[in-house]
Amino acid sequence: MAKFRSESLGREWLELTESDGQYGLAGLGDLSFLKSLQQSRELVGGWASVDDLKVAVASFASNSIFDLMMREVLQKATGEWQEPFTEDELCHCRLVPTVVVDSAILAGAHTPEEVSRQTNASTQCGTCRPDVEKILAARLR
């Protein structure tokens, strides 16, 4: 069985599983997240190949936390996911871990200024701002 997972720091998680050509979807989140999960389970039942997953990525085009996480698990399942930033700590001045920045983006911080307000990343010397922008661009494309 193959598992592909996306999670927000201490918040939502989404997992796509594949076993013998059958796909399953599980997750945890708020009411809106769970409604999207339920609707998506109907789609998952019709997927039979990696090509179906590649086509499905376009179905999740909004920047809601569910769609962001769904795109990630689908891209992981098709081998197309690339982490936009691989170091554990993104902001060395404020000691902000990358996972905190990514979780803020998933939760709705969709500009560098919003990320800075929610995480303190890039509020001192600013050298990590391009990295914040790189993660934003990868998540919100």
In short:
With 141 residues, the chain is of the alpha+beta class.
List descriptors.
141 residues, 5 strands, 2 domains, 6 helices, two-stranded antiparallel sheet, alpha+beta
CA gyration radius, whole angstroms: 16 Å
Average pLDDT, rounded to a whole number, is: 93
| Beta strand % | 15-25%
- Helix % is 40-55%
Overall tally of structural domains: 2
Shape: elongated
- The number of helices is 6
Order of strands, main sheet, comes to 1-2-3
Any overview of this molecule?
With 141 residues, the protein is an alpha+beta fold. It folds into two domains: 2-78, no CATH class; 89-140, BFD-like [2Fe-2S]-binding domain (Arc Repressor Mutant, subunit A, Orthogonal Bundle), CATH 1.10.10.1100. The protein has helices at residues 31-44, 50-56, 65-78, 98-106, 112-119, 129-140; strands spanning 2-7, 13-19, 22-28, 89-91, 96-97. The strands form two sheets. The chain has a three-stranded antiparallel beta sheet with strand order 1-2-3. A hairpin with a 4-residue loop joins strand 4 (89-91) and strand 5. Helix 2 (50-56) packs antiparallel against helix 3 and helix 4 packs across helix 6.
